[in-house]
Amino acid sequence: MTKSKTVTGILSLVLVLSACSPLSTSNENSQGSASEPPKQDGRTQIHWLQHWVNEQGPDKINEVKAAFEKKHPDIELIIDDVPFAQEHDKILSLDLAGMPPDIITASGAWVTEFADAGIIDPIDEYIDKLPKEYQDAIDGPMSLPWKGKRYGVPITNGNIALFYNKTLLEEANIEPPTTWEEFLEASKKLTDPAKNRYALTGNIVAEPSTVISYEVFPFILQAGGKIIDNGQAAFNSPEGVEALNFYKSLIKEHKVTTPGELSAGEKEKRANFSAGNVAFMFEGPWGVAIQKKLNPDLEFGVVPMPKGKVTGTIAQGSVLTLASKGKNKEAAWKFIEFMGSAEGQLLWDKATNFFPYNQITMKDDFFQKDPYLKVFVDQFESFDRIEVIDNFLPQANDLRKQFTIEVQNFLTDKKTAQQALDDAAAYWNKAFEKAAAK
């Protein structure tokens, strides 16, 4: 993950910038005060805000809770859950009310926003005290500082690969595609609206703004383009135009996607794939466990993203952060340290089938020999371009949403591909300039 090709544009942006919660499951009495942390039966209570109980079910998450509490019997971990689509806004409202959880799970796209707003604390003093082996193991693009300070320990990580329905492809005598050309031809053969069968779910909804990392950014990289370069938006290039035109052709010309692309997002995409009537899905390693939970009988596989001019994909994940207004930061840090460790990540990933960020954990046979997860390991090691951008965008959620809106403008013929990308780039660059000036 530290290869120069994966983070060149990001490092440039970081240098420029450096120069310059869901509803709690606890009752009211458990909140305590900043000077007197809440306790129950002599144990300090800490609240962890996340969205995975909703996706994974409580049993797997409780395995992690039990392991942590066994290691730290003086701490009680309370898991607060909210659907991912609501999580960002809930964090903002809880912070505004002065009632945040102790630990905030932040999608990469939220880190800079929460840091600039003072919602989360820098954690450099904690990281600096970790053993060198631990620090080296979590080194990489998701751990780089924002404006000279580090804010989160990565616990989920992954790039985007191609999921496919084995049954549908076998019935059509089609092999998983390896190039854009093969992907287009396979998509056309696999689409039959009369049978409610499509190659892809058309999903480019603006909220939550995560869909572009799955549906659009990888195409730009595969076309030979970049998302960011030298601290500026770089997607409004001939390669970016080529990528958007290819994406639009799938939806509008060849009609291989489900209808209603402007109102569908990740939830709809995953539901359609699990129902067995959609052949392909762009998804991260977290999607393996999600699909197995949604439909245990679904026969699906995972292969690398199709190659355009080059191979390329987006990497992203989530980090654990300390809430600035949290009630017990020392105990909360112990949980973050546990989850970021090789031991904690292996436990977490075995329970959830997620993909690790810790480089020691990534070498474990659990990932190296798993037919699904090995694909993501191989992409990290072999792809021409892998970009991590979310953790280093000022107001990343807003920038991604604006980019999505411009793609929608292109899909609805309000703008050309070049106009849409130019307008999105101008919006992004204003945000970069404003952030650099602070």
Tell me what you see in this structure.
The chain has 438 residues and is an alpha/beta fold. The protein has two domains: 4-158 and 316-387, D-Maltodextrin-Binding Protein, domain 2 (3-Layer(aba) Sandwich); 160-314 and 391-437, D-Maltodextrin-Binding Protein, domain 2 (3-Layer(aba) Sandwich). It is 47% helix and 14% strand. The protein contains 21 helices and twelve strands. Strands 1, 2, 3, 4, 5, 11 and 12 form a seven-stranded mixed sheet that branches. The chain has a three-stranded antiparallel sheet with strand order 9-6-10. Helix 13 packs across helix 14 and helix 20 (396-411) runs antiparallel to helix 21. The protein is globular. The protein starts with a helix and ends with a helix. The model is unreliable at 1-36 (pLDDT under 50).
Cα separation of the termini: 30 Å
Number of helices: 21
Largest sheet: 7 strands, mixed
What do we call the CATH homologous superfamily of the largest domain?
Periplasmic binding protein-like II
Shape: globular
Given helix and strand content, the structural type is: alpha/beta
CATH top-level class of the largest domain: Alpha Beta
At a glance:
By secondary structure, the chain is of the alpha/beta class. It folds into two domains: 4-158 and 316-387, D-Maltodextrin-Binding Protein, domain 2, CATH 3.40.190; 160-314 and 391-437, Periplasmic binding protein-like II (D-Maltodextrin-Binding Protein, domain 2, 3-Layer(aba) Sandwich), CATH 3.40.190. The chain has 21 helices and twelve strands.
Notable characteristics:
alpha/beta; D-Maltodextrin-Binding Protein, domain 2; seven-stranded mixed beta sheet; globular; disordered N terminus
